[in-house]
Amino acid sequence: MVAGSRLADRILAFDQATGVLRAEAGLSLFEVNRVFLPRGYFDPVAPGTQFITLGGMVAADVHGKSHHRTGSFGGHVRSLKMRVADGRIVECSREAEPDLFRATIGGMGLTGHILEVECRLLHVPSPWIHAESERIEDIDRFMDALKEAGPRWPYTVGWIDCLSTGTGMGRGILHRGRWAEPGEAPDRRPAERHRPSVPFVLPGWVIDRWSVRAFNACFYHRHVPRVRRGIVHPESFFYPLDVVRHWNRLYGPRGFTQYQCVLPESAGRGAPRRFLELLTRRGGASMLCVIKDCGAEGEGLLSFPRPGTSIALDLPIRDGTPDLVSALNELVVAEGGRVYLAKDVLTRADHYRAMEPRLESFLAVRRRWDPEGKLRSAQSVRLLGDAP
Amino acid sequence: MKVAFLGATKGIGRALARLMAERGDVLFLLGRDTADLERSARDLEVRAGQGRFGTAPCDLERPETFAPALEAAEAALGGLDAVVVTAGLFATQDRLEEDVELARRLVTANFANTVVFCEHARKRLLARGGGTLCVFSSVAGERGRKPVAIYGAAKAGLSRYLEALDHKFRDRGLRTVCVKPGFVKTSMTDGLPVPPFAGEPEAVARRVLRAIDRGQPVVYAPAIWRWIMLVIRLLPRFVMRKIGF
Fold first, then answer.
1. Domain residue ranges of chain A, discontinuous segments joined by +
2. C-alpha–C-alpha distance, residues A193 and A199, integer Å
């Protein structure tokens, strides 16, 4: 079950001096940015879409282009008001009920209904972004470029063509960015953008291996010169996919699933290459996969990111997709990595348990707050063996 | 603009109050749940970026609360340019047929008591030389329809009253705006099957605010419902008896 709480979307307090925001959990990130960016504040972690709620950002402990510096969202949360399984309303934080707080961050909603979120926003010098993008020839150079950009840039992310093989394997575009200083930014505010919509669901054959290959190749070769730089609209830097609404319709009636894993530093710098080799061998057609170096592990008992390399794919649903995901998961288990629960619909319980040594400490907290196992989800039934 | 607002805590009212606060209007919130009113007041204050938004209890089921609430609003705002009413009771036709007492309460609140509230409001506005009275009726009042027989009857009465206010007082400076929302996705309609042409509260609120600024006497929102209701009004009875709409 997914509980949407868009109707609970009120801002309850904001301190202009410190950037501390308290709001009902259904407030969307789009609203947060719309209201507070003109006042010099932005969300601290910059996830890839702004059509998410504060409550969802806590439950998935979301991360973004600044993960190597700022960590994931939970680290910026100060306090949560929750309705727990027995109906009580509980305020939790690092001081009060810290076990509930840590289990809720990244806990995929299994510890209770998040009602209010108090978090600290990031102060920014202007509402514009100074962005650079660079064409990178292969995955090994990509790893080096990400590593090199980390200390100098607050925002980094790579889009790679995960269908190219051989010498061009993992070629792509690296994006780096920082907030523009007042002197270099335009005086005006970034305009609100019109978002065209994909009007209907396209037939399933539109996105196949060949069309994706062509799209990815265009995307790579169109990037001339090799390095581009300039002042850009924050939405085009942070949320390139939000520009078109309902873009999921491109994938046809069966839709698509996302797959995201992190390969830890201990797996060595060859791990992303091994992942891509497996993916291309199995023929997983993904439009532009996203690659990002992760910083420190979050506080949440089940937080996804950890130091290493995160790779995210969009996989169209086909008959073979569950097998592809299982094959990728086997590699992730062998490399000592883990998958992102927020994007997972196909992982098997045995793979998940092998990836997640922290699971027992999460389950202990969950048992304490929900001894009867009232709070369950389709995912918890699949991965944790809950009663359906 | 100084606005007394009955029903700003939920749905289209919440979206409309936000648009007003963000562009610099000052609001005073009226409603029955004082804790909820305070939460909405804080939300609007942060969005406005300045000022304090007051609240006072006012319940459409308790007409004795109307005059003190409007008095408190005018005093706190130091004047009054507009009164907005989005509040009302809602229940499905099935529920109202089961529970006749609920039907009585709903018709009383949405028609008789809303008229009484508007009488208090328009007298205050006229005493100040005019202003805007914006009240939410519904497309449900356009035709006797099976799924909204009782709710629609109350809204039909309300629409007629607002039309007459517009005829009678416009030349004295009272601009009456009767809003007729179609199906809009809010807490009121949560759980109902969503028909085609359903609207989002933010888009509907933008349209209503434009109508308030222009003093437009009747506004359908989303706009397409004007044409849908035109067709519904033209359907002959024998067709209305057959269809479930």
1. 11-123, 129-352
2. 18
pLDDT tens per residue across span A225-245: 888 999 999 998 998 877 777
Q: Which of B23, B42, B46 to mutate to test the interface with A (most CBs of A within 10 A)?
A: B46
| Coil/strand/helix, residue B127 | helix
ipTM for this model: 0.90
Q: How many CB atoms lie within 10 A of CB B51?
A: 12
Distance CA A145, CA A176 (A): 10
Quickly count: other Cβ atoms within 10 Å of residue A166's Cβ: 7
B54-98 pLDDT, tens digit each: 999 999 999 999 999 999 999 999 999 999 999 999 999 999 999
List the one residue out of A168, A173, A166 whose CA is nearest residue A145: A173
Whether residue A4 has pLDDT greater than 60? no
Considering the domain delimited by A11-123, tell me its CATH architecture: 2-Layer Sandwich (3.30)
Residues of A in contact with B186 (CB under 8 A): 7
Question: Which CATH code fits A129-352?
Answer: 3.30.70.2520
* Domains, chain B: 2-242 (3.40.50.720)
Residues in A 24-43 with any Cβ partner in B closer than 8 A:
24, 35, 39
